[in-house]
Amino acid sequence: MANDEHDTGQVPPPGQPRVPPGQRVVQEWPVLHEGSVPQVDLTTWDFRIFGLVENEVRFTWDELMALPKKTITTDIHCVTAWSRLGMSFEGIPVRAVLERVRPLPDADYMMVHAEHGFTTNLPLQYLLADNVLLAYAADGKPLTPEHGWPLRLVLPRLYFWKSAKWVRGFEFMDQDRPGFWEQNGYHMRGDPWKEERYWF
Fold first, then answer.
1. What is the mean predicted confidence (pLDDT) over 33-37?
2. Main-chain dihedrals φ then ψ at residue 183, nearest 5 degrees
3. CA angle, 9 as apex, 4 and 11 as ends, to 5°?
4. pLDDT digits (tens, 9 = 90+) for 120-141
């Protein structure tokens, strides 16, 4: 697995303020996305794990919902400079999903695939933190379509664009490569405490 100076999901990182630099705290949860909200049919919906794994896996909605569940309380930080504190998310720990596949030894990175062809890249180790979920509920209610229903990634350690809405799969990779947002100027990693907003 690739080495990284931030290899845990602790939020905030040790010694850092709760609210990252350049952020303002908001009470409401803003809605931001590119393009239209997908229309989803759960009877045909699936979630795939593929790439550098010994066995690719495809989950139906019911199969995914049969996995262990977890609720976390966390702060989230958007690259557009808002932060929302103390949100709760309910979902499936990503670790529980990844345990169903056997990644190859050189699979150090992940491409997160979402509806409409949207993608974002991550070092695999970020997805292994205990507070990373495939979430279907927020603040005690099902996610709205605008916030990513039926399923969104929640990865509190990075700017929230890395927590892709309408997520549909994970692709294991041996090299990092930019996803949709990173190709359009967003930082390859996205650490809020380092203000890694954009690559330029």
1. 73
2. -65, -20
3. 120
4. 999 999 999 999 999 999 999 9
| Closest CA relative to residue 90, chosen from 161, 28, 165, 151 | 151
Residue 55 burial (10 A CB sphere; 0-12, 13-18, 19+): exposed
Question: Per-residue DSSP letters for the chain?
Answer: ----S--S--SSPTTS-SSPTT-EE-SS-----SSPPPP--TTT-EEEEEESBSS-EEEEHHHHHTS--EEEEEEEE-TTSEEEEEEEEEEEEHHHHHTTS-B-TT--EEEEEEGGG-EEEEEHHHHTSTT-EEEEEETTEEPPGGGTTT-EEE-TTS-GGGS-SSEEEEEEESS----HHHHTTB-SS--GGGT--B--
Residue 2 burial (C-beta neighbours within 10 Å; 0-12, 13-18, 19+):
middle
Two structure tokens written together for 172:
């294991």
24-29+45-194 CATH choice from 2.40.110.10, 3.40.50.2300, 3.90.420.10, 3.30.420.150: 3.90.420.10
Burial category of 39 from C-beta neighbours within 10 Å (exposed 0-12, middle 13-18, buried 19 and up): exposed
pLDDT at 30: 76
